[in-house]
Amino acid sequence: MKPQSIRTFGAACLLLTGSFLFTSCKKGVDGGKNKDNSISAVLKNHPELSSLATALQRTGLDTILAQKGRNYTIFAPNNDAFSAAGISAAKISSMDINQLNRLVKYHVLEKQMSALEFPMPSDTVKSMADTLNLFMSRNPNGTFVNGEMVVSTDIHADNGSIHVISGVLIPPTKTLAQVVIETPRFSLVYAALAKSGFMSRVTDRAKFSFFVPDDAAMNAAGWNSAKIDASTPLEVTDLLKHHVTITNTFSSDFYDNSVIYSFQAGTILQIFKSPLGLKLQGSVATPSKIVNTTRGSTYDVVTTNGVLHEIDKVIL
């Protein structure tokens, strides 16, 4: 073949190749535009989030989370989290639909929130479930929702964000006051609440933490039924105010030398991480330890207006 012919043939090949590449790229861009990248689609295509995807589908919430034009945030427990909570595929299929719907909606915000927008150190954010709040925090230990760690953040979807969490969020049904009233070993704290008039505060819709000594701890500090009866409402209120803080503080929010403010004006509680405990700042007393026997029962008890922790002694 003559040199001129070779050059002409080569140019033709380059032109054809360039044309092919352009066509291929254009096809790829067009194909990407039509791809479903909604929250529902991302969850459905993620093998470790199949339990949540199944629950969304059964409640019909998958349709809402597939829509364009509105943004959402979903806190997505992985399959291991569902298993740990005793929620199998069979249970998802048989669960009362209203109960399942409330459970799933408790994991959803009707707005997009990136990990960097999580409140620091802690605050409440309204969930899609009725008027229930989620208790969120960002601190040196990590990022948390109701004390559950966010293990993977900011998974992108076209209509919002997905954050994978380590546990299922169970919607609370009781206030802090109701938990105290219904727990027999807290009978002296209940009597103190009734005497003080402080009961209304731990019933208010808010984001409190209540550190509750059991009856044995109250007796050890000299607070028996007779002393509660003989004390003035103000004296009993002052005792209780040391044990209620103005922000939600889960065990995951504890780190050494951090502080939280109680209802008692001018009173600061000093936090200790190992072991979990707290005391009045400046006090020479040993810390009141959190009874961390059973999460959700003796500590990190999620309520509609905050979190409750049982402690082994009255805070001094």
What features would you describe in this structure?
With about 325 residues, this protein is of the alpha+beta class. It folds into two domains: about 40-165, Roll (FAS1 domain), CATH 2.30.180; about 175-310, FAS1 domain (Roll), CATH 2.30.180. The model is unreliable at about 1-30 (pLDDT under 50). Helix 9 packs across helix 12 (about 235-240). The protein has twelve helices and 15 strands. A seven-stranded mixed beta sheet has the order 2-1-7-6-5-4-3.
How are the secondary structure elements laid out?
Elements: H1 3-34, H2 39-44, H3 50-59, H4 61-64, E1 72-77, H5 79-84, H6 89-94, H7 97-105, E2 108-109, E3 122-126, E4 133-139, E5 142-145, E6 148-157, E7 160-165, H8 176-181, H9 187-196, E8 208-213, H10 215-220, H11 225-230, H12 233-241, E9 244-245, E10 259-261, E11 268-272, E12 277-280, E13 288-289, E14 301-303, E15 306-311
Parallel strand pairs: 1-7, 8-15
Antiparallel strand pairs: 1-2, 3-4, 4-5, 5-6, 6-7, 8-9, 10-11, 11-12, 12-13, 14-15
